[in-house]
Design a protein that fits this description.
globular, alpha/beta
């Protein structure tokens, strides 16, 4: 039996002969774009830290269905709690809302790459994904300085999406430190 090729039927055109998208949009980023709205909310949360003199870092925890479970911002100066980083605050609130310390299928969106403490909390909470904006070259533990969240020796390793609205996130931090 011989196979005939129908050039007018796309399902019969070999991949090598298909024309690529003639005008792909270079501004589209299918990995980072879906997280922009959540990152904008995290940026709004981050701004809430500034009146108390806290570094403007904000976080949002999304449920598996994308529902906002909790938000948080740095509250170390406001509370005197050295562990009150935005990520920890948001994780605690999400866990309290769900009545469960495990947050499987959840995503944490944060404006600054998590530090070692926050990376540890993310691994322990079993989040599925960490999405962050600005790299933290001095203390980052999700790929910049360390990569704790993806260390193969750990029992849980969330997916990491970096660089969502990175310039806006970095600018918020730069502006804060410049105005001190």
């Amino acid at each position: 039996m011989t196979h005939t090729h129908d050039a007018h039927h796309p399902h019969h055109t070999p991949d090598a002969q298909r024309d690529p998208d003639p005008d792909p949009d270079p501004d589209l980023d299918p990995v980072r774009d879906p997280w922009q709205a959540s990152m904008r909310l995290a940026l709004t949360e981050a701004a809430r830290a500034v009146p108390a003199g806290d570094v403007p870092v904000g976080a949002v925890v999304l449920g598996p269905d994308g529902e906002i479970l909790a938000t948080g911002y740095n509250e170390r100066e406001a509370t005197g709690d050295p562990t009150a980083h935005a990520e920890v605050v948001a994780l605690r609130r999400a866990a309290a809302r769900l009545g469960e310390w495990r947050l499987p299928g959840c995503t944490l969106v944060v404006t600054l790459e998590p530090c070692v403490m926050c990376a540890g909390a993310l691994v322990q909470s079993r989040v599925a994904r960490v999405v962050y904006g600005a790299d933290d070259e001095k203390a980052g533990a999700a790929g910049s300085l360390w990569d704790l969240v993806r260390d193969r020796r750990l029992n849980h390793r969330p997916e990491v999406v970096r660089g969502v609205l990175a310039e806006e996130c970095a600018r918020q931090l730069t502006d804060f430190f410049r105005d001190l």
